Structures are given as structure tokens and as C-alpha cells.
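Researcher: For the annotation table, I need C-alpha cells for Secreted protein. Please keep the output clean. Sequence:
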Amino acid sequence: MTKSTTALRATIAVAFAGAAAVAASGVATASPIDIQPTPVLCAAGIAPLQSVTHTEQEAVEAEELLYVVNQQGGAGGTINWFNLTSGSSGNASFSPAEGWHKIPVALVEPEAGTVVSVVWGPYKNAADENCFLLPGLDLAEVPGEPGDPD
């Protein structure tokens, strides 16, 4: 998959997230991560984090997981993920999505299965404060391609 295709899909997903974030209280079909990270060293804190799968939003492809910080501005933080089903792992960080109110997103491709993620580390919030995120935890069931036996 090319980076431009990934960026396009992320932008589409962020379009949904951005529209919902501006118009309402958040991404309507996204799931808040199970245990939110705790921001320290910054008075303004950060907005709730959400994870989105293809089951919740068609703009996110099967075998992908999109993380969203539901506020404009901000970047950083580390997402470490591990697929309990396949044994694959990786990491990502939040960056503002251009063209959609600069909402911080991270798109990962963990394959289908049960994915456990930890969100932690240095993060610059929307108020331009440097925070440190004490670890938050997410458990998501990432769907596979239709017709896959997984």
C-alpha cells in the first residue's frame, strides 16, 4: 500500500472525525480507548482518545486501526501495539491531519485480530503545552477482509 493511499484513507477517516468533532461532542461511532492516558505537567490536558476500526467507520480499511485525539491541534505521544492473534507489533505517534482542522491521528495496520495498545509519552497539546502521558490502554478487535477465515 502506498503512503499516498494510506494518507488519503486517513484523511477520509479524519474527515468523519473532524466533522463530528467540530459539530458535536466527538466521533459518533468511535470507541473511547479503554483506559485513557493521564496527562501530567500541562494544565490544559488533552481531549479523550478514541480508536476506530472498519466496523465502526467504513473509511478505515479492514485490518487497520485509527487513533484520534478529539481536539484540534496537538502532536506526539507514542502508541505501541501488539496483535495477540498474529503476534505482529509496531508503533506510531499522533500527528495533525492537514485539511481537517489539524486533528491529531495515527493510522496503524496491525492485521486482523485482538490488538492491545498502550498510549504514552511526550505530547504537545492543543494549548501548545508540553505534556507527558502516563500510559493509557486500549483493547480492540480489528476486523479482517471480508471472506477471510480469521
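Researcher: And a one-line annotation?
Model: The two ends are 21 Å apart (CA to CA).
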